[in-house]
Write a structure and sequence with these properties.
Length: 242
């Protein structure tokens, strides 16, 4: 097992807790992480000193120091994806979102909000969910290496059902979801595959369930956008000799 810094691990856990539950008090951070309150307070104070958290009337919230880090996440990938997401949102009127793989999770790295409808679905950049959930998670998992696929599959509540869903996604080249990550939301997601055929990222359209039929009509446009991004990413790698 790789040796890690216990203090560093705890500090990152505290920061993640504030991001997920903020405003959060020192007592809440202590309880959620199983830490002594004095230790939790010391870690929060360190993070506050570096502007990674701020203290507001309700407790601690994420501070401005995380913004440069967020902008540095997958910059080349996001630079290629963002124009396509904007075009997809503009043409369909629906929200387009991109995820990347991080361990056993799918993480939102970019989003273009649809503006044609008063009611729309939105994600938060940096939010994450298991690869076993949602259209974006499953389409990523369906196009991951076999060993990783099987390892994560064993953690599912119903591996056989999930295996069928992943096989369907692999055959179709896209995945769909209903009311999984957000109640009343429908998603259609396509993988972004590298030259090796594996997906490190995905793009999706997310809509209120009432517009499911309309979203399904945009599936072909989503697949065209995904193919275009894959082509651009390969071109970028070729130009940079990677």
């Amino acid at each position: 097992m790789t040796e890690i810094s216990l203090t560093g691990d705890r500090m990152l856990a505290v920061l993640e807790t504030v991001a997920a539950h903020g405003p959060a008090s020192a007592s809440e951070v202590s309880r959620l992480n199983g830490l002594n309150r004095t230790v939790a307070h010391r870690l929060l104070s360190t993070l506050r000193e570096r502007s990674y958290v701020r203290l507001v009337p309700g407790g601690y919230v994420v501070g401005p120091a995380v913004l440069p880090l967020a902008r540095a996440v997958e910059p080349e990938l996001i630079a290629v994806i963002t124009p396509e997401l904007l075009a997809l949102a503009r043409e369909t009127g629906e929200t387009a979102v991109a995820h990347v793989v991080d361990g056993s999770d799918a993480v939102v790295v970019a989003q273009a909000l649809g503006t044609r409808h008063l009611v729309r679905v939105a994600h938060e950049v940096g939010s994450r969910h298991a690869l076993t959930l949602g259209a974006s998670g499953r389409v990523l998992l369906a196009f991951r290496p076999r060993e990783e696929f099987e390892t994560i599959l064993r953690t599912a509540a119903d591996p056989q059902v999930l295996r069928r869903e992943l096989a369907e996604a692999a055959a179709l080249g896209y995945a769909v979801s209903h009311d999984e990550l957000q109640a009343g939301a429908h998603g259609v997601a396509a993988p972004l595959r590298g030259p090796d055929g594996f997906a490190q990222a995905s793009i999706a359209l997310v809509v209120p369930t009432a517009r499911t039929a309309a979203a399904n009509e945009h599936t072909e446009r989503l697949l065209v956008a995904a193919a275009r991004i894959e082509e651009l990413l390969v071109g970028h790698l070729d130009r940079n000799g990677s």
